[in-house]
Amino acid sequence: MSEQNPLRVLLVDDEAGFTDVLAKRLRRRGLFVSVALSGAEGLRLLRENDFDAAVCDLKMVDMDGIEVLKVFKKMVPAMPVIMLTGHGSEEAAKDGLSAGAADYLLKPCDIDELLAKLAEAVAKAAGSGPA
Q: What is the pLDDT of residues 29-53, one digit of tens each?
C-alpha cells in the first residue's frame, strides 16, 4: 500500500453482478470500496463509516436513487455523489444534478471515466470547505 490514504468509495446498486465487477476493478486501482446492494443498506453503511465519495444507481428496487442521494446529502453534505443510470434517462440525470449529485454516468460506465469523475468530485469537495 502507498503512504497516501486510498479513496474511500461507497457503491450503491442493487445489481449484484454489476457491483461485484465494478468494486473489484476499483479495488485493483487502489480504492477502498464498500458495496451496498440496496438504498437502505447504503444509508446504514454511511451512518457507520466515513466515505470520500459515493456512486449510486438511479433505479433500485427498494429506494429511488434520487431519494438515496437526498438523504446522503443531509447526512454528509460535502460528500460528492456520482449517479449511475442504465436507462439513459437524461431527465433523471438532471433531477440528480439538481438534487446535489456531483455528476452522472451511463451504465455500463468506463472505469477510467468513473475514476476521473470521482477524483474531480473529491478534489472539488475538498477545495470547497466552509468559508
A: 999 999 999 999 999 999 999 999 9
Model's pTM, two decimal places?
A: 0.90
- Those residues whose C-beta lies under 8 Å from the C-beta of residue 121, and which sit 6 or more positions away, are 53, 80, 82, 102, 103
pLDDT given for residue 114 in this prediction: 96
Q: How far is CA 23 from CA 43, 96, 130, in A?
A: 18, 22, 32
What is the side-by-side order of every strand in the sheet holding 8-12?
Answer: 32-36, 8-12, 53-57, 81-85, 103-106
Q: At what angle do helices 65-75 and 39-48 cross, to 10 degrees?
A: 10
Q: Strands 32-36, 81-85: parallel, antiparallel or unpaired by DSSP?
A: unpaired
In the chain, domain spans: 8-127
- CB count in 10 Å sphere of residue 68: 26
Q: Pull the grid cell for residue 80.
A: 460528492
Beta strands in 43-102 (DSSP E): 53-57, 81-85
CATH T-level fold of 8-127:
Rossmann fold (3.40.50)
